[in-house]
Design brief:
Blueprint: H1 2-15, E1 27-29, E2 35-44, E3 47-60, E4 64-73, E5 79-88, E6 90-92, E7 95-100, E8 105-111, E9 117-123, E10 141-150, H2 154-157, E11 159-162, E12 165-172, E13 177-185, H3 204-224
Antiparallel strand pairs: 1-11, 2-3, 2-13, 3-4, 4-10, 5-9, 5-12, 6-11, 7-10, 8-9, 12-13
Helix pairs in contact: 1-3
């Protein structure tokens, strides 16, 4: 019976490899002037990666929503730690198109590394996947206008941004590589200040190895008994 329970625990553990597709703590916009913020914070290879994104709904009609977006990269430590893109996994209602002003770009149903396809992605320069030196450097703040359109209606139930809220940094820390992780809705408990520790992107291979390790430990105990 104990062995069976261990197998069930391993199956549950391995199923968590898809945790990035689970949606919680949505950001909702129902009226003009509604605001919502995403906070990002983690450490990687000596660098403290920290950023915030604030969305303010400035115009709303059935098929079009316009946001003022303020982005700040508050990272520090070794490396350039350049913010190259961030995204929203699920936007409701389904988007038809997304555009951004100035040096910023925006796209729908595009790949954000580490998060596969996302409904909405924004980037300061190249594209959602990064891959160039363009981006928002440490200490920089940028503001742009984001315009979203839908074939449905933004007026029916408002606009919902659902997790995970992925972000990509490049030239990070002592290793100088890129790094992706998830942020959190600033309006939820535990997201903000010293308690801000968003989840990193799940690694299915690592979770599977943990499950195999549990299985091995159980078999060893059974042989000893």
């Amino acid at each position: 019976m104990q062995f069976k329970k261990t197998l069930q625990a391993i199956a549950l553990c391995c199923s968590l490899a898809g945790i990035g597709s689970a949606h919680a703590d949505p950001i909702l916009f129902n009226n003009v002037d509604d605001t919502g913020s995403i906070l990002y914070a983690t450490t990687w290879q000596g660098a403290s990666l920290s950023a915030s994104v604030q969305f303010t709904l400035t115009s709303l009609s059935a098929q079009q929503a316009v946001f003022s977006v303020l982005v700040a990269n508050n990272s520090s430590g070794p490396g350039k730690n350049t913010l190259t893109s961030f995204g929203i996994d699920v936007v409701t209602p389904t988007l038809q198109n997304a555009t951004a002003s100035g040096v910023w770009g925006a796209g729908t149903n595009v790949t954000l590394p580490g998060f596969q396809k996302v409904d909405l992605c924004m980037w300061p320069g190249n594209n959602c996947s990064g891959g160039s030196n363009a981006g928002l450097d440490e200490g920089e703040i940028s503001q742009f206008t984001l315009t979203l359109t839908t074939k449905g209606s933004f007026l029916s139930n408002g606009i919902s941004f659902e997790t995970p809220y992925g972000v990509k940094f490049q030239t990070v820390g002592t290793g100088g590589k890129s790094y992706d992780f998830a942020g959190c809705n600033a309006g939820t408990p535990g997201c903000g200040g010293s308690s801000l520790v968003p989840s990193q992107v799940p690694e299915p291979a690592s979770i599977a190895l943990l499950g195999l390790g549990l299985l091995g430990a159980t078999l060893a105990r059974r042989r000893k008994a």
